[in-house]
Structure formats: C-alpha cells, structure tokens
Write a structure and sequence with these properties.
Length: 162
C-alpha cells in the first residue's frame, strides 16, 4: 500500500525525524521508520550527510588498493603488514575519519572489519582490528550514530576516481 503525502506533511515528517535523530541517535531514527532505506527517502542524502558531519563522521571515503594508501597513523600496527593479503583475499578497503581518527573498513564476505588507530577504546592486543559490534558500541554509539551501516554509507558517498 502506498501512502501519498503532501509537501507539508513530508516536510513535517522530515523535521520530526531529524529531531528524533538529534535527540536519540540515528539508530532510533532507523527503528522509527523501519529501515535505513526509508530513513534516507524521508530525510534525503544531503541531510544525512549534514547529520553525519555534525556528529563527527566525515563521510568522505578513499579507496585503499595497496598498503601505500594507508595513512601514517596506522603504520605502527602489526596489521599494517597484512594489508596486502587482506586486499588480495577480500578486495578493496575504504579509509574514512571519525572524530579526526582514521579507520579502514573492509567487507570480508559479509563480515565487516574495521582497523583503527590505537586509543583508550581499542584493545592493543587486537592490533587495531575491531569487529562490527565493538565499532557500533564503542565508536558510533557515543556519537549518536549507532545503527548506521558503514557499507551503505560508502555506497552513498564514495565517488570513484579516474
């Protein structure tokens, strides 16, 4: 069943949803409307970009195709030497920043892997590798972004370079 909204109703729905996101986080916004896809239809790509920026997530992604694309801040990690084998086995990685910290993301057969700079949140024994749950709980939740799928955000904002 389709619901037809007037422009005023859509604007009101969008403003209320943005208020929910700002007060309770993007995960609550997604739960409110049922899915990330519906959330995106209501608020739009540009508004989502602004929300991500306001919460410290810079949705500018760079593709990593060799270990030379990895920023210096990650050189000291033992995993840095494994980047070529990760790339060979699972394809490209994506580099992005949250709160001025670098993160690498790779989809390893539907298992999302993140590599991060060390800080007080990341366990040094993990050598910077964090799984999806830790990333959501430790990195995104404090910013009000828990529930967002990084792979879908990459699909929205990554622009291939020639």
């Amino acid at each position: 069943m389709k619901i037809i909204l007037t422009e005023n109703q859509h604007s009101s729905l969008k403003n209320n949803l943005i208020d929910v996101i700002n007060r309770f986080g993007i995960g609550t916004g997604i739960k409110t409307v049922g899915s990330f896809k519906v959330l995106l239809k209501i608020i739009g790509k540009e508004t989502l970009y602004d929300i991500l920026k306001q919460h410290g997530f810079d949705p500018v992604f760079k593709i990593v195709t060799s270990r030379f694309d990895v920023p210096r801040e990650l050189y000291y990690l033992d995993i840095y030497r494994s980047v070529p084998s990760f790339l060979n086995q699972w394809g490209p990685m994506f580099l992005f920043m949250i709160d001025n910290k670098h993160y690498l993301y790779q989809d390893q057969n539907r298992v999302n892997i993140f590599i991060s700079e060390y800080d007080d949140v990341i366990d040094p024994e993990q050598d910077g590798i964090i799984d999806e749950n830790i990333f959501q709980d430790s990195i995104l939740q404090p910013l009000g972004l828990k529930g967002i799928n990084i792979g879908k955000v990459i699909d929205l904002y990554y622009i291939e370079e020639d």
